[in-house]
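Posted in: Structural Biology > Protein-Ligand Complexes

Title: Requesting predicted complex, heme C in pocket

I'd be grateful if someone could produce the 3D structure tokens for the following input. Sequence and ligand are given below.
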Amino acid sequence: MPCSVVATSKQTKKMRAACCGGVAGLLLSACGAAPETGVERGQRLLAQYQCGVCHSIPAAPGSVGRVGPSLAAFGLRSYIAGEIPNRPDTLARWIAEPASLVPETLMPDMGASDADARDMAAYLLALD
Ligand code: HEC
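-- Reply #1 --
Done. Output follows.
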């Protein structure tokens, strides 16, 4: 409904209400797209950092690598690299700086920020 229609003051009020309602509706629908969760962001980042060059990772596009171990069902794994307890904090640390936990590891430092590593860890820990 156009907002600039000439009308009596009573009608104008009604229209204004309708128009404002429309604007509010638009704003709501713009914000309505649910914000990305850490897990969803992690899934996107795994593809962005190209972890899949070396790892097979479920539902992460292009992740078919065989250099490193498969990360399927990683949320069910007790240990990272066979020796570090698999928890959100240790997994994020591993992803950000693997050699800080296992100095002789073959996994390279991927240059992930702490925030990015935390979300990638959240995604991997959700895999079961
Ligand atoms: C150049 C190849 C390479 C890339 C790229 C790579 N990794 Fe790894 N990754 C490895 C190797 C090799 C291991 C095994 C290391 C070990 O056991 O010490 C490993 C181990 C892991 C483990 C532990 C696996 C297990 O079975 O315990 C996780 C989790 C992991 N990588 C996540 C990632 C993530 C997330 C990225 C992207 C940010 C990534 N990796 C990028 C090679 C790679």
